[in-house]
Amino acid sequence: MKNTLTYTSTLPKEIIQMIDYYARKLKIPKNKIIENALATYFEKLKKAEYVQSFRNANNKVEMTDMAEEGLEDYLKLIEE
Hints:
Blueprint: H1 13-26, H2 30-58, H3 61-79
Helix pairs in contact: 1-2
């Protein structure tokens, strides 16, 4: 089963030129440059969401209380 899809889009000329340049320089296919760039970008987004969720939880006393209760329960389990 094929694990890839073909996708067609347009990009600014300058971006295409950079992709071409680095593909030749690094001797890797252009799609790998795009794939790696997107994977890095999505990882950055995921980290930002994670940080934001902690900031939101930090502002909510009930979330802190729940986390502390959960930690207490966990500690009881591992002490048994």
